[in-house]
């Protein structure tokens, strides 16, 4: 007989509502789990989406591409193309080194050739100022004025020294908006008249700053093809097509964005999976505690289908509470961590998707417990003793008798009773340990990433692999020299005298010199300027052994053969393709022009092979594309001192004194620039601190899920076994023994999780670090995160002791005789 026929069609809803009102403990854990999963999903989704929106808003007023060295006629003709939505012209002069800052001379059209003002963002002028219009007017930043000791106001006079040493006087007509305190480059904006006639810009070609119509809807590859085709149509070389990488990174098809999407999806799936485990466990324990109630309902005529519907409806009712709470919390956090990317429409869509995903998650979580509740017959419910016995295959004869006899030999100590309790419902124990284990493994992965990252090695990538200070020839000085870098090397300040001065400083261990020579090359109709890296026979052997592919032609060519046949090899052919659209091939001829400070020499060399792995630059920083035998370099270098960089290896304990003395030495050498490992470490530490915070925050959220399941299990164990505990106390168990038994039950669960976390967390962590090292993250070294693990163990010990103590203390206030009379 159908129970609904005895009441009304809403009986299932009434019973579900009644159950939700009466089972406050289950409700709390379920709502908490749902709200936690929803809020975490919302925060991650809104952060990723908000960052994308912020990027889109930022690039909305950025150029898409800059065409270098374009004539005015070409620019005007390009502006007429339908696919060009905005075009403005600009000039950028050679940067001027001023201490650790670069002063960048600029000019750009105040009114675009095509498009509206503001469609491409340019520096804005603060109120009360104007853009430069006359030859002697400039717009600058307040910070630049402070740097040179001039009052930052309209009408102030400043002196600007160009890289050739000439000084010009200008009047400030406007101050640039923005916070430039941490900027390394300060722009100076000049007038159109100065751009055409002024010393710092007159010899510099114009650039076309362009936006492509509907570019944001294009695939990244299609956009790159289009801008190259457009440039080619107006005589712009591919090497002079400079796409805005920040903009192209926002387009579909970007590999980094695709990887990010995969990671994001994996994290969300992981959160939903853990949510399923936690909510399933909560409802599973709830069903076990209500088996007699279900039996009574079945006796009154409720069908299996109605039981399933009732349990399912309870879960959906709790979802109706947990999901809005989670969305509110997640939305609030998401707003504050990504204000610039907040968008109401995207937020509503994300909220709807998360709502559907979490409803499905809850339904999947409670499906099996609902089926379990429906399968309980009135007779089974009447016989229920507080545990679900798993069906086992029958064992025959003597073997079964022996095993049954063994079961009678049980230890009645608190530990023995705790083991019996853990074994009575293995499924519940398994679920709890599994959810704890997943959280623990993810925490160990995060901890392993943090402990494995060697920030010192990360900062030492590049030139700082050999020391703490890098002293290099100034690019500005090379720009102003008639013979370029070779002109500086003719009377090279990186000489033996400087080396001896550096070595005389207390704490300096070694000064390592690196060499390269400037050259101009032509091949396949392209011409450019680069550097050639000289190598000797020993270095070439190292390259062959460590960096050359086994099938490379370089494997079969000796150093002497390269010299005899006038051969060179290319490092980084893939970058050549990115810039020019083609790759060097073995056998290609390269015409090279050298200026050795005294004469200009033209030579031709043959490409012998390639070192595609850019790890080769660990052997020498900034080597350039072309690597040439030392003997061939000696033919053209003349009397040049080819030193290009000094790396100073020091005792880091004497850092302050050493750096101060190096700076004193270099004051008299304006053609040299100093970079320090200390400054790079400060920048890297800031970046990694943010990464560590995000990783740990995410793992702690996931641990919160698993701990929620542990706490729910412990509380349910105590609440549903009040009468059992009362009976144990009535036959002599002391309160202290009872507390110890319950506490040990929780610690057994924690112990199982500790073992899973230790084994799988270590294995996955080690494998993850090896994968990262294969992907060139050589600064990562596996190190067991001992202190993180010990901290996690401490939490696993404290939580069950604390929860068990609080719950037992609460119900033991009731008299023993009253607890014994509690109805089943």
UniProtKB/TrEMBL annotation:
Transmembrane residue ranges: 27-48, 262-288, 315-338, 344-366, 429-450, 690-720, 741-766, 786-811
Keyword Magnesium among record annotations: no
Subcellular localization: Cell membrane
Record flagged with keyword Methyltransferase: no
Entry membrane topology: Multi-pass membrane protein
Keyword annotations from UniProtKB, A to Z: Cell membrane, Membrane, Transmembrane, Transmembrane helix
Domain called ABC3 transporter permease C-terminal: residue spans: 267-368, 698-809
Major localization listed first in the record, in broad terms: membrane
Record InterPro entries: ABC3_permease_C, Macrolide_Exporter_MacB, MFS_trans_sf
Signal sequence segment: none
Family recorded in the similarity comment: Belongs to the ABC-4 integral membrane protein family.
Annotated protein name in UniProt: ABC transporter permease
Organism: Bariatricus massiliensis
